[in-house]
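Q: Predict the bound structure with flavin mononucleotide.
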Amino acid sequence: MGKLLLAPMEGLADHVLRDVLTRVGGYDGAVTEFVRVSGSLLPLRTYRRISPEIGHGSRTPAGTPVAVQLLGSDPVCLAENAAQLATLAPAGIDLNFGCPAPTVNRHGGGAMLLADPEQLFRIAQAVRRAVPADIPFTAKMRLGIDDTAKALDCARALEAGGIVSLVVHARTKADGYRPPAHWEWVARIRDVVRLPVTANGEVWTPDDYARCRAVSGSADVMLGRGSVADPFLARRIRTLAAGGTPAADRSADWAEILPLLADYWAQVQVKVEARHAPGRLKVWLTSLRRTFAEGEALFMAVRTLRGIDETTRVLTAHGVPVLRAAA
Ligand SMILES: Cc1cc2nc3c(=O)[nH]c(=O)nc-3n(C[C@H](O)[C@H](O)[C@H](O)COP(=O)(O)O)c2cc1C
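A: Predicted complex:
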């Protein structure tokens, strides 16, 4: 089967969740949340903070390679920062051409660049020159801002600029995160470029995965929100691809999530200030409740809690095991 990649998700999938999800297994690679580049040369600690994996061969503890994503609009500035980042030997350097956030778009970054394929070319070309050939240089794009009129030109421009592979989130900025994802556009893009194209958008189940592959024609698929809602999604997809049948009864999966939740909670307490820790836990539970009835019950139980100790007590009462805050 093709590759399965864990999507970059700022505010949702940080290195703690990447650790947990890649430990469950099934992923060939992951991408960090975006690092915004605007004007100055970022210190190396910025990359180490977003991607502590850099200190471990740019892999999660389970061994999954992690590429670092940059977001910006100025070719020279992006190239200088990419050269600096390259000294840390990340598993890849990825450029973001899809972020719809107003603060990012106001500065002409993220999805706004999709109006200007020539600028995409200039950016990719400048960064290509700054990144050594042994570090995969990739990009991720949406289909456009309001429509798909420039989607093919954008993909061609990025290829001409020297990226080695492209992820296509099959929606425009105007589409937001609303279904459907237009996987047929991934196929159209594949028709006009030679580089490998990864399909992304609206894959929540193994069934979605099969349809996404069939419609897009892409062997490689990137999983976003579905991977957070169902930590076993990549593994279930692999089971199917190997001819097996994933269990219909998800109670064993929930039992496997409990120690992962314990570990997540312990790591979150180390990573963020105590007053933010319950919020971080709720972010993941908000996704898990989509898939698991037990996740819904747990979410409802911790929903209003603000303190570490009370949250820990409720987690324990719901079967989450050892809750030691890691050193
Ligand atoms: C909360 C959130 C944060 C995201 N942050 C990023 C990001 O930092 N960089 C990026 O390229 N895409 C980002 N995305 C987009 C995802 O990588 C992915 O393209 C999108 O969610 C579509 O895939 P899905 O339908 O499987 O979720 C984000 C999406 C969400 C929901």
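A: The CA atoms of residues 151 and 183 lie 13 Å apart.
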